[in-house]
Task: inverse folding
């Protein structure tokens, strides 16, 4: 695997063709190969002729002719059609020369012999051709089958992959295994939000110098990258080139598929956040206008010259203004918190705190809102200190209590209890609001989730999701349960800070 | 006092300036105002006020820097007013020169109370610093190392007394956790907030009528503690 592979200069990017430097070498190889095959065919005939000299007296010409078909067949099977035809002609000449009267000449006197010789030549050539074709067909079929297998393996390996880097790696590995090469490198281009990837597959040692071949990874739409390969020797045949281009286009398709899947996911997310934003705007504008209209109405009444307000009336209007401004302030705070949670900027400043101090502090601040309910706080005296962000925990209790006040009938009990156990500090805020259907129990902690119609209850629908954000930022968990006659919020908080418990306080020396 | 106390407002928001000028003047303060940090510092030098109300978000410089700069040569009380409500900002302002901190929006009664406390405190530091501090039925006698509740002596450990004495000596002011820990336990223990939680809890049990709803030793959420003395 290779990360940050240095980009080689893109020279001769489109050279699928062999570079001029290795061409003569290659032709020589091919020519030599062919020459050897023809030589082998000649040698076979020579060997047979030599062998036949020993049995000559005992065999009739008709038998010998049949025997001479053997090397023709052998040559075609072993070395191909060309050497086979050559063998046929050689056999024809040799037979004529050594076995037909007059011997040791290429002349034929007897008509019978002429017929024999002609038929032999025809049979031999036709035989060689038939065998050659069959052999070529079979070889082709076998190589097609092999290609198909390799393609199948590549496609099924690529189909499972979900990221560009592994596609590049699989493509490089499979290409190296399929083609006769020492090293393969695949590099993909950087796209919008997709970093470039590079993968290398090496047989033993890294290849030196320029690659033998560079192939573009292209799909119908896009240029995705490049594949470079270093051949062990020789050059890719036309079939191999075809297979290689099939490989690279499969690779390019796989990369494109991953990009498209990502794009689809992104657009789904955008769509969702768009929906979220518009529901936020709806909810916020509704929420902001309600207190604003109350304030505006009160202030304009007080300024009005036509009415002479008495003291209790003035106080009532002024109280409304103050309460509504507090409400607005809370709303802005919630929005700010939500955006901090959304952007991951919510970082609790955890210090050792006494839960009772936080809970009682919140109870004092919310006294006026809690007037209609009966708040019971039952915290054991020996509750351990818990590492929390004081202000954020205040926010959690404020939101849970606000929620309880909103949904529980007047005059009912709201209870706050806590206990330490193996799982940390387990706190419960219970109220006597109506039960929440089981299928909503998790969803109530999501943004803007409401069980009732939006305009029946005030609030942004952010409170509980902020609680969830804060508790999770503390490494805790929050959930809700229905119990007989009660609805309970639960949350847990870890009791250690960086794995440690609080130090017991140091008593200082007198003086 | 023969003259009304002078307050310098450093804030760039016209609505706040307009409201505060009206309200403070009605409460018998002489008010001047500056809309940038530079201007504020210059005015504080030219005509030293009795108290400064400072916004943290100013067009030319950070409010904390203004407080620091004034603190270099003056002990004038500084009350910070800011929309920044994170404890980090509060602690930074208090540790670097501010005497008190109020988050916008604030109740005007709260601001007036804080102004009175700050002015009283600065008078004390100027000379007649009393050694008896009263908070409801509790009296802390700093000189005689004595604490009484409804006339009866309360036994305190050495640590408890040192902590209470430090808070009482700076009555009505917000003291940050760090400041208290450094003063009472020493510099090496400045981040052991857990000590404070335990000792404040013990003091509340001994001094408060209802330790769960303290009236004397008040928590400043995320910032520190405040000893609330009787007027």
Result:
């Amino acid at each position: 695997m290779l990360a940050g592979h240095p980009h080689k200069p893109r020279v001769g990017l489109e050279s699928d063709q062999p570079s001029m430097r290795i061409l003569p070498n290659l032709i020589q190889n091919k020519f030599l190969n062919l020459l050897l095959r023809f030589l082998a065919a000649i040698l076979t005939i020579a060997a047979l002729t030599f062998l036949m000299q020993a049995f000559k007296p005992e065999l009739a010409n008709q038998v010998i002719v049949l025997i001479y078909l053997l090397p023709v067949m052998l040559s075609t099977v072993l070395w191909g059609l060309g050497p086979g035809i050559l063998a046929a002609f050689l056999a024809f000449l040799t037979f004529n020369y050594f076995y037909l009267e007059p011997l040791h000449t290429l002349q034929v006197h007897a008509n019978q012999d002429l017929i024999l010789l002609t038929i032999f030549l025809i049979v031999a050539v036709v035989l060689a051709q038939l065998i050659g074709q069959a052999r070529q067909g079979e070889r082709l079929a076998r190589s097609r089958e092999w290609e198909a297998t390799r393609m199948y393996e590549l496609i099924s390996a690529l189909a499972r992959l979900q990221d560009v880097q592994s596609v590049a790696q699989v493509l490089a590995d499979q290409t190296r295994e399929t083609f006769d090469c020492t090293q393969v490198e695949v590099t993909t281009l950087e796209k919008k939000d997709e970093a470039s990837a590079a993968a290398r597959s090496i047989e033993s040692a890294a290849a030196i110098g320029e690659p033998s071949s560079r192939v573009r990874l292209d799909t119908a739409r896009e240029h995705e990258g490049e594949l470079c390969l270093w051949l062990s020797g020789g050059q890719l045949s036309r079939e191999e080139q075809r297979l290689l281009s099939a490989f690279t286009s499969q690779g390019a398709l796989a990369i494109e598929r991953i990009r498209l899947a990502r794009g689809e996911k992104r657009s789904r997310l955008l769509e969702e956040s768009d929906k979220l934003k518009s529901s936020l705007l709806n909810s916020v504008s509704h929420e902001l206008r309600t207190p604003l209209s109350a304030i505006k109405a009160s202030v304009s009444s007080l300024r009005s010259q036509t009415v002479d307000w008495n003291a209790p009336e003035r106080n009532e209007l002024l109280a409304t203004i103050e309460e509504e401004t507090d409400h607005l302030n809370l709303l802005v705070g919630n929005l700010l918190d939500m955006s901090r949670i959304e952007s991951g900027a919510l970082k609790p400043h955890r210090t050792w705190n006494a839960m009772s101090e936080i809970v009682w502090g919140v109870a004092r601040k919310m006294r006026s809102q809690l007037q209609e309910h009966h708040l019971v706080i039952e915290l054991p005296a020996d509750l351990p200190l818990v590492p929390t962000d004081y202000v954020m925990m205040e926010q959690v209790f404020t939101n849970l209590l606000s929620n309880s006040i909103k949904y529980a009938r007047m005059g009912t009990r709201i209870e706050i209890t806590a206990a330490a156990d193996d799982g940390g500090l387990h706190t419960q805020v219970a109220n006597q609001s109506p039960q929440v259907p089981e299928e909503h129990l998790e969803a109530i902690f999501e943004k803007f989730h409401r069980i009732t119609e939006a305009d029946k209850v005030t609030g942004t629908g952010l409170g509980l999701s902020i609680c969830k954000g804060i508790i999770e930022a503390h490494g805790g968990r929050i959930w809700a349960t229905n119990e007989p006659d009660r609805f309970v919020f639960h949350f847990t908080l870890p009791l250690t800070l960086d794995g440690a418990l609080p130090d017991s306080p140091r008593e200082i020396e007198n003086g | 006092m023969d003259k009304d106390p002078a307050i310098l407002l450093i804030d760039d928001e016209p609505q706040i300036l307009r409201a505060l000028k009206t309200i403070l003047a009605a409460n018998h303060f002489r008010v001047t105002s500056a809309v940038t940090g530079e201007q504020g510092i210059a005015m504080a030098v030219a005509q030293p006020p009795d108290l400064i109300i400072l916004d943290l978000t100013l067009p030319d410089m950070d409010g904390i820097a203004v407080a620091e700069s004034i603190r270099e040569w003056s002990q004038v009380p500084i009350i910070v007013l800011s929309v920044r409500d994170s404890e980090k900002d509060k602690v930074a302002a208090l540790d670097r020169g501010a005497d008190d901190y109020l988050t916008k929006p604030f109740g005007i009664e709260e601001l007036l109370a804080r102004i009175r406390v700050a002015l009283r405190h600065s008078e004390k530091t100027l000379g007649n610093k009393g050694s008896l501090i009263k908070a409801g039925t509790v009296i802390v006698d700093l000189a005689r190392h004595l604490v009484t509740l409804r006339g009866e002596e309360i036994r305190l450990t050495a640590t408890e007394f040192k902590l209470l004495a430090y808070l009482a000596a700076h009555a009505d002011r917000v003291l940050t956790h760090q400041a208290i820990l450094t003063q009472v336990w020493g510099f090496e223990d400045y981040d052991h907030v857990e000590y404070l939680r335990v000792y404040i809890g013990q003091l509340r049990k001994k001094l408060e009528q209802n330790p769960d709803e303290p009236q004397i030793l008040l928590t400043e959420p995320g910032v520190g503690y405040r000893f609330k003395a009787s007027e």
